[in-house]
TrEMBL record:
It comes from Glycine max (Soybean). One of its GO terms (biological process) is carbohydrate metabolic process. This is glucan endo-1,3-beta-D-glucosidase. Its EC number is 3.2.1.39. It is an enzyme of class 3 (hydrolase). Transmembrane segments: none annotated. Belongs to the glycosyl hydrolase 17 family. The gene is SGlu7. Keywords: Glycosidase, Hydrolase.
Length: 245
């Protein structure tokens, strides 16, 4: 089904109630927000729409240091609206390796504390905990079979992947084929980035055929996971898009 990201950093935005109505009108079943805004959570109550909410990077330090912070956030920001609002995922931090103040060392401790808070309420099997990443976590993505995580992030990624595998949570990735085209126009055609390619790209190591950059990038993540022997973790795309001008 179609999934949308609902960001609110802009002018003249419709109210959360109007957004919820619009989402229902277009029969969209999944929505990601980047925090746990009360008005948004209320607006999506009793709609049946699955919501992904987030702990912002600015809160990672406090969530990682004290279990009580995760407990009180869950009690005040999530529990009053659940299960009327169908919260299915909590992202703890977003693309931390790309942020100017690298908070990657706080992510797994914060995820652990959020999971513990969910366990106390018996919700850990219904609401999954993860964190989102940019494709910058890879040092190689072409060919897809050579996909490999950047060794400079190993201290952060290894414990995170262990957490995801143990708790059956997905590896969340924000993928933008546009950037691959922008940065390597001679190698990545516009058609290939836009799902319009008439020709195929063959991975010489596997013989797999790729008709678009999106699929190739997803497979690069899977191969990177397999290279570290994490074969059970599923990959979930949490952002994708194209410039509008």
């Amino acid at each position: 089904g179609i999934r949308v990201c609902y960001g609110r950093s802009a002018d003249d935005l419709p109210t959360p109630d109007k957004v919820a109505q619009l989402v229902q009108l277009h029969k969209i079943k999944y929505v990601r927000i980047y925090d746990s805004n009360i008005q948004v959570l209320k607006a999506f109550a009793n709609t049946g729409i699955e919501l992904m909410i987030g702990v912002p990077n600015s809160d990672l330090l406090s969530f990682s240091q004290f279990q009580s912070n995760a407990d009180s956030w869950l009690k005040n920001s999530v529990l009053p609206y659940y299960p009327a609002t169908k919260i299915a995922y909590i992202t703890v931090g977003a693309e931390v390796t790309e942020s100017p103040n690298n908070a990657s060392s706080f992510v797994v401790p914060a995820m652990t504390n959020v999971l513990t808070a969910l366990k106390k309420l018996g919700l850990h099997k219904k609401i999954k905990v993860s964190s989102t990443h940019s494709l910058g976590v890879l040092s190689r993505s072409f060919p897809p079979s050579a996909g490999a995580f950047n060794s400079s992030h190993a201290h952060f990624l290894k414990p995170m992947l262990e957490f995801l595998a143990e708790n059956q949570s997905p590896f969340m990735i924000d993928i933008y084929p546009y950037y691959a085209h922008r940065d390597s126009r001679s190698k990545v055609s516009l058609d290939y980035a836009l799902f319009d390619a008439s020709s195929e790209v063959i991975d010489p190591n596997t013989g797999l055929l790729y008709t678009n950059m999106f699929d190739a990038q997803i497979d690069a993540i899977y191969f990177a996971l397999m290279a570290l022997d994490f074969r059970t973790i599923k990959v979930m795309v949490t952002e994708c898009g194209w410039p509008n001008s």
